[in-house]
Design brief:
Blueprint lengths: L9 H6 L21 H13 L3 H16 L2 H16 L2 H11 L10
Helix pairs in contact: 3-4
Length: 109
């Protein structure tokens, strides 16, 4: 999100469920007026902080790695990252919450 209203980040598509589906060619996932940017940025920061931050970090690492490496290397790196995130307490808690039809609580462990 930037002043003027556009959050033009491909990474935001992987970190939030936001999508401008009416215009799929756009990378902007949200448009807000300049006067609401601070409040919306705070809301988004709280949303991300309450989420699976270890997984978010792995997504960022995978995006950065794949930008500078080939497909085979990127897939191998993603496999390593998935093994890591799949072995965390957050992953186990998320699976347990899903099976119990509850909202997961993430603790970055």
């Amino acid at each position: 999100m930037v002043a003027g209203g556009v959050m033009p980040s491909a990474a935001s598509l992987t970190l939030t469920s936001a999508c401008c589906c009416s215009r799929p060619w756009l990378l902007a996932t949200e448009v807000v007026s300049a006067d609401t940017v601070p409040a919306r940025a705070g809301e988004l920061a709280r949303q991300l902080a309450a989420g699976p931050t270890l997984a978010y970090g792995a997504i960022r690492q995978a995006l950065a790695f794949s930008a500078a490496n080939g497909l085979a290397e990127s897939l191998a790196n993603e496999g390593d990252l998935m093994r890591f995130t799949g072995s965390t307490e957050d992953h186990r808690a998320a699976v347990t919450a899903f099976l119990a039809k509850q909202t997961p609580e993430f603790r970055a462990r």
